[in-house]
């Protein structure tokens, strides 16, 4: 297979992985996302093998066999490692701390954190504007902006927002801050997410 | 480091041109592999951290890899004889068109998400994909015109 064709096929593969990720996240099928690294590892393994193979064939048969064995073993091990790491966390629900997020800083454009929250525990989200023109708050369950769990804006005139939330499923949640002012006017923030019933 | 390729002035300069274009093709091929592997690495991080910014990075790396891959193919085809070039150019253009349409299709879906959710990250992804499709279309056109010359 010519190299440009192989590259083109790999490009199509990477595009389909990106499309599958975006599609599954959009439909909130997060379990599909756990399998994508395994598919990606298999694809990279095949791409690497097909690319290296013609170079190996020009060597002596002993070197060819040994190298093929070593490469296939390394690739199989990497696929197994990725699969174990990715899929072992599929159904696990590690307990979150009493304060999953205590976050201070200043936002220039936008900034995000992903606290791990437990199912059934009530959390108190406290957002404070410490300086600057203000920021918008967006809390979601996954990388996509829908469904929006909480949205609010903080200004110097109203510089605090408190919100309580009890997740129905454990996992990472997205807390995103978007600066209202221009880049030259960063907004200072202090965000605390603390468990109320722990 | 830039390399000046002299114009066709006799056999010696023709050989020099052949050597220069062969080395350019090799360099671009290697570079495109690096960018495709970088894109795969970014998608691997995406799988671990589930942050959509990694898709933006991966699409950017894929774009550079695609442009280098297409350009190297265009240069490689110039070194092929006229009769074979016509046939090879046709199959190359067909494959490049396939990739372009895949990029445009995905870009359309992503732009729709960007507009519905007012999400700028998706706007960037859509533009990257549109850029990739458009550049491939332009290179395909160039290959097609060169094969007719």
Report on the structure:
The complex is a heterodimer of chains A (198) and B (149). Chain A is α+β, with helices and mostly antiparallel strands and 198 residues long. Chain A folds into two domains: 3-88; 101-195, Sandwich (Jelly Rolls), CATH 2.60.120. Chain A has three helices and ten strands; from the N terminus they run αααββββββββββ. Chain A has helices at 3-26, 30-57, 61-88; strands at residues 101-107, 110-113, 116-117, 123-131, 135-140, 148-154, 160-165, 171-172, 174-179, 187-195. Chain A has a four-stranded antiparallel sheet with strand order 1-10-4-7, with no helix packed on it. A four-stranded antiparallel sheet of chain A has the order 2-9-5-6, with no helix packed on it. Chain A has a two-stranded antiparallel sheet with strand order 3-8. In chain A, helix 1 (3-26) packs antiparallel against helix 2. Chain B is elongated, with a radius of gyration of 18 Å. Chain B has four helices and no strands. The longest helix of chain B has 40 residues, at 10-49. Residues 1-10 of chain B have low confidence and may be disordered. Helices cover 88% and strands 0% of the residues of chain B. Chain B has one domain. Chain B is mainly α. Chain B has helices at residues 10-49, 53-78, 82-117, 120-148. Chains A and B meet through helix 1 and helix 2 of A and helix 1, helix 2 and helix 3 of B.
């Amino acid at each position: 297979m010519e190299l440009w064709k192989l590259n083109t096929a790999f490009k199509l593969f990477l595009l389909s992985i990106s499309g599958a990720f975006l599609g599954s996240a959009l439909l909130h099928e997060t379990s599909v996302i756990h399998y994508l690294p395994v598919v990606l590892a298999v694809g990279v393994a095949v791409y690497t093998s097909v690319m290296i193979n013609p170079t190996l064939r020009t060597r002596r048969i002993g070197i060819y066999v040994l190298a093929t064995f070593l490469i296939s073993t390394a690739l199989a091990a990497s696929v197994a490692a990725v699969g174990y790491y990715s899929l072992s966390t599929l159904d696990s629900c590690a307990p979150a701390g009493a304060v999953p997020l205590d976050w201070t800083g200043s936002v220039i454009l936008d900034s995000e954190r992903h606290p791990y929250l437990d199912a059934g525990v009530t959390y108190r989200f406290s957002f404070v504007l410490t300086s600057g023109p203000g920021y918008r708050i967006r809390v979601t369950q996954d990388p996509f902006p829908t469904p929006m769990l909480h949205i609010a804006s903080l200004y110097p005139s109203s510089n605090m927002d408190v919100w309580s939330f009890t997740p129905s499923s454990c996992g990472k949640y997205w807390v995103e801050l978007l600066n209202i002012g221009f880049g030259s006017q960063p907004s200072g923030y202090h965000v605390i997410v603390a468990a109320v019933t722990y | 480091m830039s390399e000046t390729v002299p114009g066709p002035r006799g056999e010696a300069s023709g050989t020099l041109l052949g050597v220069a274009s062969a080395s350019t093709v090799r360099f671009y091929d290697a570079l495109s592999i690096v960018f495709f592997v970088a894109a795969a690495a970014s998608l691997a991080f995406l799988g671990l951290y589930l942050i959509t910014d990694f898709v933006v990075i991966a699409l950017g790396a894929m774009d550079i890899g695609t442009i280098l891959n297409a350009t190297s193919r265009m240069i490689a085809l110039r070194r092929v004889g006229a009769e074979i070039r016509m046939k090879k150019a046709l199959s190359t253009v067909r494959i490049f068109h396939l990739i372009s349409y895949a990029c445009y299709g995905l870009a359309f879906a992503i732009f729709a998400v960007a507009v519905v959710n007012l999400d700028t990250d998706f706007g960037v992804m859509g533009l990257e994909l549109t850029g990739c499709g458009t550049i491939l279309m332009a290179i395909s056109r160039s290959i097609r015109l060169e094969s007719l010359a």
